[in-house]
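Consider the following assembly input.
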Amino acid sequence: MDWQALSLSVKLSLVTLAFLLPIGIFFGRWLAYRQFFGKSLLQTVLALPLVLPPTVLGYYLLVAFSPNQGVGLWLVNTFGATLVFNFQGLVLASIIFNLPFAIQPMQRAFAAIPREIREAAACCGMPPRQVLWKIELPLAWPGIVSAMVICFAHTLGEFGIVLMVGGNIPAETQTIAISIYDRVQAFDDHSASIMSFSLLLFSMLTISITYWLAERNQHTHV
Amino acid sequence: MALLYRSKSYQEHTINNSLNKNRSRLALVLLMLLSSPMIMATDVPVIAAAASVKFALQEISEAFQLDTGKRVRISYGSSGNLTRQIQQGAPFELFLSANTRYVAELERRQKTLGPGTVYALGRVALLTSKNSSLLLDEQLNGIKLALQNGQLQRFAIANPEHAPYGIAARDILQKLNLWVLAQPHLVLGENAAQAAQFASSGAAQAGLIAYSLALAPTLQQRTRYLLVPENLHQPLQQTMVLLNNAGDTVKSFFLYLQQDKARTILTRYGYTIPYR
């Protein structure tokens, strides 16, 4: 077992989640409650990573953040930082890659909250922020948790983007999925099989947790 | 509705409490992540190396660590892909290419400290899995026969677009007038090691791979191989070059690679040391 790669993957997943939680809540809630011009276009863009091959996304990120030109050059000149071949770049890629997986379940969870409850709270003088903290979030939490669980597992298994934007650097961008690929090429089938089996078990666990949460969610709303 | 209101103050109390607790816990987790031991590992310089030199370099870096107490990290890939990564700002300090061409390209783009050094000469091997009945011979007649009678469906080489051992494999097949016959059967590995993996696992019935990989102990157990004559392909000049941001550790590793201990290991993996 490549513990270094595993801990790197877990770290990447957790940092990604820390960003995706507020982003998902904001966009999920916004898309659930508001109608505005260009909403369907925005939803299309946010859902793109679902169907886009990871290598396409990886390619665009690589080109956009390459320190030779454009945004990447500006980043180097302004902050002295690059976003390719390092951990920060992986975090950014993971956030983009996971957007639909974070937003869509949360959007559904917010949309499922009966409108009367929110209106009643507002009528009785509850300020919007309190409505969010005390009514919406507690009611939407199973959806939020399942979104986070999926994003965590998804980041753990990410391969194409990580290889392209990350460049397979041990202890920095060599995640568990890349390490498996590496072990296979090193004819080290033993390690590869152990790591693959662990990821398989973990994925099954993740899926059962999300199903369990979804079922609970249904019961509370019926 | 009434229920909702009656429980309001209680709910408010508990939710606020748990939110605050969660918030500080989250902050703690983030703090731990930011100061994780991973940061220590990033002080160890990273080397980009052609996948074909993987096993030899593993041994050399271990010997280097024993002798000097310094560590290096190695990122393996095809020489072409690594060249592209270096051009796009990958933080490598030393590049071990499987040919001279990519090093020259980086030098032209001013990504290197000085010109490259040829540290070894590589060879190509014809490889098949141990239980295969394929006939291995220097002129690849057995392969030709197997291709013609349908015994050989898949033949693995590294991708000639960006892997020097792929280019060498293409040279060999062209020189023996096998290219047209073999082409529909080729499986391209992303790099030399992947091609070797295809050929050794039986996914492809045979392959032209780096001799240094054929000599790796784990591969030797399950394969048969034959050294291909070196006049059938362009020389595989394993060339290394210090990159612009090379630090002291990597500079001493660069010298270490040209000393006897490293050369002995390279020779054991089938490399020839160029006359200096």
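Residues 1-19 of chain B have pLDDT under 50 and may be disordered. Ask yourself how this observation constrains the way the partners meet.
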